[in-house]
Amino acid sequence: MTGSPDTFLFAFGTSSAAIITAIIVMTFVMEDLATAGAAMLAAAGTISPHAAALSLFVGIFLGDLSLYALGAYARKHPSTLKRIGEDRLSRGQDWLRQRYVSALIAARCLPGMRLPTFTASGFLSMPFGTFFAVMLAAGIAWTAVIFTLVYSFGIAISEALGPWRWIAAAALIVLVLAGPRLARALISSRNRLQ
């Protein structure tokens, strides 16, 4: 499997326990790539789909909790609070409090929004119980939907493309990662032409 997109998932070895550990660790580095790689490995029969999906959920949930904790830790530094100011801090808390659950759900689904939203939740001392419950539910739903889609795609690709499936998986990952940027660039260039 050297050179294929799943190589990172064999970083700790090829046993199921090693792959599960690698999936969990990889969610901290690049969640979308870990999801695609784990689903493709499950589709190829390298690891059971249940173990792959559960590993993804555990890694994603731990990552979400870590971002909240990072924000809470940053709040303890007086220099950070001084730079932001009490007025801006209060306005940020009010804004987020009014739409907290919907902001958390949106951040789970929108690329690039998890880090600022989840870290701000900890920094602004938003209720941890709410954060925990929403992230638990959203994490389960998100992992189930995305994993199932990629897993189903992986089975179809595996059967249709054989060894070329890794190229198709890499193209899918590039499309998922670059798609929003390409769409913004196209819209921007279209707006300039008008």
Q: What can be said about this structure in brief?
A:
With 194 residues, the chain is an all-alpha fold.
What would you say this structure looks like, in words?
With 194 residues, the protein is mainly alpha-helical. It has one domain (7-193). It has nine helices and no strands. It has helices spanning 16-29, 31-43, 49-75, 78-84, 86-98, 100-109, 114-123, 128-161, 165-193. It is globular, with a radius of gyration of 19 Å.
Number of domains: 1
Share of residues in strands: under 5%
Mean pLDDT over all positions: 82
Helix-strand makeup class: mainly alpha
Q: Output the number of helix runs.
A: 9
Q: Give the beta-strand count.
A: 0
State Rg: 19 Å
Uncertain segments of ≥5 residues (pLDDT<50)?
Answer: 1-5
Shape designation: globular
End-to-end distance, in Å?
A: 49 Å
For the largest beta-sheet, the strand count, sense and barrel status come to: none
Order of helices and strands: HHHHHHHHH
Helix content: over 70%
Topology:
Elements: H1 16-29, H2 31-43, H3 49-75, H4 78-84, H5 86-98, H6 100-109, H7 114-123, H8 128-161, H9 165-193
List the keywords.
194 residues; mainly alpha; 9 helices; 0% strand; disordered N terminus
